[in-house]
Write a structure and sequence with these properties.
Belongs to the 3-oxoacid CoA-transferase subunit B family. The protein is α/β, with parallel strands linked by helices. The protein contains four helices and twelve strands, in the order H-E-E-E-E-H-E-E-E-H-E-E-E-E-H-E.
Length: about 220
């Protein structure tokens, strides 16, 4: 299993049954492959409620894509609507959970996920609306960038997407809960340890688990 799929699999247990969920571009879209078909109602901001798992190559419908223009499937009973109606759902709080990717997460749990200084920018897309409108926001990201630099940092050097902090950060190595007092480390993946997390995280955080992996309140 790829690192990206592992992260998506680690996010799936945080999706409650029956929730309306928006999966952002990149790793978040893979979460659909790790949920039972009838577990949640997946929404994409280009106008589909009832997104299914990634189609097999011979099942791709070129007219059926998510907001990142990658092919998707539709569950039985799925509904289609305009992009403006979709954003109305998001902005009015009808999307319960958003799963977003991130370039950086700062010590307050705010994310930068739409622009890298010096590189061409297409626009912020729906991430800004999802951060403001979704009731709960989960970040699904690799723990470090391709060059090995930490993504969970004391202060973001990329432009922030919104001032609202996210609620949970899930990487291949660890899970952090975002609280009013900052980040809390609440889980470490089986193939990683606290020393690795400490070496690859520059933001301050409180360790909220003991040596047996139990989470402290």
């Amino acid at each position: 299993m790829s690192v990206q799929q592992r992260i998506a699999a680690r996010v799936a247990p945080h999706i409650p049954r029956g929730a309306v969920v928006n999966l952002g571009i990149g790793i978040p879209t893979l979460v659909a492959d790790h949920l039972p078909l009838d577990h949640a109602y997946l929404q994409t901001e280009n106008g589909l409620l009832g997104v299914g798992p990634t189609p097999a190559p011979d099942e791709v419908d070129p007219d059926l894509v998510h907001a990142g223009k990658q092919p998707v499937t539709a569950r039985p009973g799925a509904s289609y609507f305009s992009s403006s109606a979709s954003f109305g759902m998001i902005r009015s709080g009808r999307v319960e959970i958003a799963v977003l990717g991130a370039l950086q997460i700062d010590a307050q749990g705010r994310i930068a996920n739409w622009a890298i200084p010096g590189r061409p920018v297409l626009g912020v897309g729906g991430a800004m609306d999802l951060l403001v409108g979704a009731r709960t926001v989960i970040v699904a990201t690799t723990h470090t960038a391709k060059d090995g630099a930490a993504k969970i940092v004391s202060e973001a050097t990329f432009p922030l997407t919104a001032q609202r902090p996210v609620d949970l950060v899930v990487t291949e190595a660890a899970t952090f809960r975002v609280t009013p007092d900052g980040l809390e480390l609440v889980e470490i993946a089986e193939d990683h340890d606290l020393e690795w997390v400490q070496a690859h995280t520059t933001a301050p955080y409180r360790v909220a688990i003991d040596e047996r992996g139990a989470v402290h309140a």
